[in-house]
Amino acid sequence: MSRIALLIATFFVLSFSALCAQVSAVTISGMIKDKTTKSALLYVNVVLKSANDSTFVTGTVTDEEGRFTLTSVKPGNYFLEISLIGYFTKKHPLFVGSLSAFLDATTIELAEGIKTLGEVVVTATQDEIAGKMDKKTFSLEDNISQTGGSVLQTLQNLPGITVQEGKVQLRGNDKVTILMDGTQTALTGFGNQSGLDNLPASAIEKIEIINNPSSKYDANGNAGIINIILKKNKTEGFNGKIGLALGAGALWVRKENLPSIRPQYQFTPKINPSLALNYRKKKVNAFFQSDNLYTHTLNKNEFVTRSYDDGTLINQQVKRNRNTNFFNLKTGVDWYLNEKNTLTVSGVFGSEKIIDRGDQPFFNAELTERKRLWQFLEDELKTTVMATTAYQHKFKQAGHLLNVGFNYTYHRENEKYFFDNIFSDYTGKDAFKLISDEHVADFNIDYIKPLKYGRVETGFKFRKRDIPTNMQFIPGINSPLDTNAGGEATYKEVIPALYGNYIFENKTFEAEVGLRVEYVGLQYNVNPNHNTYKSDGYSYMQPFPNVRLAYKINNTNKVSFFYNRRVDRPNEVDIRIFPKYDDAEIIKVGNPALRPQFINSLELGYKTNWKNGYFYSAVYHRFADGTITRISSIVPGSNLIYAIFQNVNKSYNTGAEVVLSQEVSKAYSFNLNMNAYHNQIDAFTVENLYPVPHLFSADKQEIVSGNLKLNNTFHLPKSVDVQLTAIYLAPDIIPQGEIAARFSLDAGIKKAIQKGKGELFFNATDLLNTMVIKKNIQGDGFRYISTDYYETQVMRIGYSYKF
Questions:
Q1: Alpha-carbon dihedral of residues 34, 37, 43, 49, nearest 10 degrees?
Q2: Dihedral sign, Cα of residue 151, residue 740, residue 675, residue 218
Q3: Suppose 584 and one of 374, 423, 535, 687 were both cysteines; which one would form an S-S bond, judging by CB atoms 3.0 to 4.6 Å apart?
Q4: What SS3 state is found at 7?
Q5: Do 422 and 172 meet the contact criterion of CB atoms below 8 Å apart?
Q6: For 38-42, 422-426, 512-516, 539-543, which range has the lowest pLDDT when averaged over its residues?
Q7: The CATH number of the domain where 773 resides is what?
Q8: Which domain holds residue 104?
Q9: The pTM is what?
Q10: Sign (positive/negative) of CA torsion 98, 101, 106, 109?
Q11: Structural domains counted in the chain
Q12: How far is 114 from 118, CA to CA, in rounded Å?
């Protein structure tokens, strides 16, 4: 730990940390009254002037109710100059902060015959990282090197995010909640992130990263929240955008197959057409967005050597050729009933078709004898339908809002596996079929009230989620399938929650204090004939507070402190009772006895801005009890490895993050992101029940790891932009082992044409073909080493046109 203490101390001396992203435009509202009669004053001149030099900024007059509104005001120090014939002019000091998009200037009274005092000077600055409080926002138009790919591919280029085995991590932690337009959906996964690699990035406008969520967000996901914002245009009239991206991957064979199996995919095609339409006229705004991502992919090409304490050694390969077609459609209407009320009705449809053709040969140590060949065909169709209704009422004061929403999601997973289990003396033909229907209903009410120095937020949310599943095993000759572990199971979840959040800001201090109280009731009903597991469940009512305090050292420097308490609830797939045979001899099984892990997070930060650049850093510490992790073990008399989720001991994640961004010139800018952390899981002993009860013990596991990303952007003549992105991921711990260092280099170029309405691009990911996943796993009685040469190098070309 001395190394970690030194690391953190070094970062702390250099910088504290801060994720203090802010709004860039504020709406100011208030009311003017007569001081004596308290009656509203009509047609009062309200002028906003700079406190530094009294220059005019903007102005308006009050309406019939004495109210005024000033829009698009930049954060800074001002005063209001208020005048009306028959009244003395009054100067009202006004501090415009950057944490709230709306500011209530309160009621201002004009007095007859009483002279007003001069203004008071206060200051504030605007951060370059867009967002509120701890939010970082990234436009996908700026991510040239990943244009035309999937959302998952886009995410791995953003600061602070890494992708490991298809799971998104923030600061080395995969407990991330993924939202779409602020709502959890089956498209992005209710925790499992299953659809991100097939969701086309062309459907996305921007991505928000929230490391320290406030109480208005669900408490699930201790690493933070990633919010994916779909495209939606509100420009008057008819407009749209059409695009087409083409690509190819697996341009050459990185490692030859083991003998006697079918060829691995080469020169895999990628096709991504997209269309966005929008029509806005008077009280109606109609929108339509459709994308299709068709790909062939060498999804997995993993070479594994397994060695056992009894001297047995097995060489194997898992090769998976994947065909995917993901179709996504979003459409809806905003209906502006009047100036104060808006109703939005929208729907999303997603269809994801996956065909996997795989080979898994098993050889002896010398590769002279093939002991077994496992060939499979997976045919999977995922269908998602989501309907959303949202109502917004605007009170007379600008930014004073009531939002009411209802969201219903239906997601069907129809999965069929067919296996040929080939030995020297026989071939068994096995199969299974899984049907899973997910129903999720969300109802929420949110209330926002601007204050003179901040705002108040409060609300209620209710979620009901049901997932009936049915696994049917169809055994062949000498079947390895555990047919008694199938049948029906139903996941039921109810979560009501209340939250309150107060945000304060003046010239020296910022504060955000919130509390969310959630009740969770979960019941998992299991087929009574299951050979191992029984019905289980849990319930709790817990508080989840959040605190952020900030001190503004001066106009450009700020120190912040965060505290959050959050939870990681097991996903339905984590407790699913059915063994998964996508690997014939390393079998994944869920655990209905899995329980939530509760996490406390602390963060201390510093941020400074200068002309055309900024420096941001953070030191953070998270500690969890009942850590959720997957345990791999064997049982006596078998070489099969069973990977089962368990709650183990305490775990810790301590680290530091730094971001340096600079526009060196109009022709070149860069963004450097560095993240170093120490991960630790304390020693533990657990009992795995499947397939028979057996104990597993592990020593304390810890490592110092991190990652580095460097984004370089070049703005060349004739509207040409070039981006070069380098990513380095240091060795890291995984359950019972380590994953080796990885490196990739991505590049992209785009050119605006047709007077800026058209755009051409070309990009390439993993230019040097260096992104290879190497793992070393140590268990009781066995060890295995794996190297996955899956497809990472992809080249794309595309065109889009705005009209």
A1: 10
A2: positive
A3: 374
A4: helix
A5: no
A6: 38-42
A7: 2.40.170.20
A8: 23-110
A9: 0.80
A10: positive
A11: 2
A12: 13
